[in-house]
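Backbone-to-sequence.
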């Protein structure tokens, strides 16, 4: 097993572009890779390219008729609402199939590297398109690259894959695709469906043998409450499930500055979660860790710094939060966006949380969310839901 981390990147990954004014602007991954490069993070990883996913690979999770529709939209740039393309969330554009297949191919390349042992950890920051359904584009997502990668791992004989999704939105597409498959444990921590798209992800959605796990957190939840919830749910389940490979989705739209959602995490809280997942990959999955990006719509202040921390964590070379952002990167931000760049790699927070061992407060909405999830799924895994 190589101890190296691999980062999958091709400049063509920025061709996944729904057009001016769309929240999912590809400049966010361009600025991420530029920041990681300027800080020397990419010197600590193996940087490799990728090929587009083939139709057969996409068809491991997507209906062939849907793939054909995406190709037709791609050729003409015309909407097909029956495929979910041509909506405000998912505008039709020429080349959409090729751009989406390349993102899926990048996550597949990461999965292959981890499975074959040529890398211990592998990351595709352009991936994490977790809302795409088997036969429908949804929520800015056309092909579901995490699901394609998980299906490929299963096809290679992997018997247990855990998927942990920390995006502010419920990982509904991945959950739906594997809902009846106990080989795949899906865990999603997200803002409550009462207040946020896609309106799913209730704790009662438990899948086959408790294989779907949902932590629906109240709007306004910050670092301390979010990390308390993560600690109360994710480590016990991963330790019990013992996946052969851990797949994670790192949407950073849980940040307080994100314009599309209502959680209140800091960059420092998100960085803490990345470190916790890295540790759990080693503790429960023999170090085999595949990470993707995901949502994140504060394109300058949040996404590049958050995912640079993710890349650095995967490389085993965490970036000191007090590190200044490089002047060359600051100039690039101004040139590409006209915005004022952040000056350091921190929001200045020191994330702290109380674990559940001291008991829970039934009057606290975060603790109620935690206990709803534990009561729904822990008994199905032979775990005691009570702290």
């Amino acid at each position: 097993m190589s101890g190296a981390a691999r980062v999958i990147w091709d400049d063509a990954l920025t061709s996944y572009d729904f057009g001016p004014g769309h929240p999912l602007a590809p400049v966010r991954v361009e600025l991420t890779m530029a920041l990681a490069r300027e800080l020397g993070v990419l010197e600590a990883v193996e940087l490799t390219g990728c090929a587009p996913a083939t139709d057969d690979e996409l068809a491991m999770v997507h209906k062939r008729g849907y793939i054909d529709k995406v190709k037709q939209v791609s050729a003409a740039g015309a909407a097909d609402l029956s495929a979910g393309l041509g909506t405000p969330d998912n505008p039709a554009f020429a080349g959409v199939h090729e751009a989406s297949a390349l993102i899926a191919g990048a996550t597949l390349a990461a999965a292959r590297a981890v499975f074959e042992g040529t890398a211990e950890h592998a990351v595709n920051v352009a991936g994490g398109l977790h809302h795409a359904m088997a036969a429908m584009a949804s929520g800015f997502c056309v092909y579901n690259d995490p699901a394609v990668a998980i299906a490929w791992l299963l096809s290679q004989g992997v018997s247990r894959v855990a998927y942990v999704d920390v995006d502010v939105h419920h990982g509904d597409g991945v959950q739906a695709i594997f809902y009846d498959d106990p080989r795949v444990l899906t865990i999603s921590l997200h803002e409550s469906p009462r207040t946020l798209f896609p309106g799913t992800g209730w704790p009662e959605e438990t899948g086959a043998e408790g294989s779907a796990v949902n932590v629906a957190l109240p709007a306004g939840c910050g670092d301390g409450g979010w990390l308390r919830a993560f600690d109360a749910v994710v480590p016990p389940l991963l330790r019990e499930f013992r996946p052969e490979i851990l797949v994670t989705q790192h949407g950073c739209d849980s940040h307080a500055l994100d314009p599309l959602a209502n959680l209140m995490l800091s960059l420092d809280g998100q960085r803490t979660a990345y470190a916790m997942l890295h540790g759990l990959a080693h503790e429960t999955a023999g170090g085999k860790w595949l990470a993707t990006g995901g949502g994140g719509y504060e394109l300058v202040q949040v996404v590049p710094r958050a995912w640079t921390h993710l890349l650095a964590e995967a490389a085993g070379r965490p970036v000191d939060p007090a590190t200044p952002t490089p002047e060359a990167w600051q100039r690039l931000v101004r040139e590409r966006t006209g915005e004022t760049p952040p000056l350091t790699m921190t929001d200045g927070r020191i994330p702290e949380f109380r674990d559940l061992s001291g008991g829970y407060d039934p009057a606290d909405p975060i603790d109620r969310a935690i206990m709803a999830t534990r009561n729904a799924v822990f008994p199905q895994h032979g775990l005691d839901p009570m702290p």
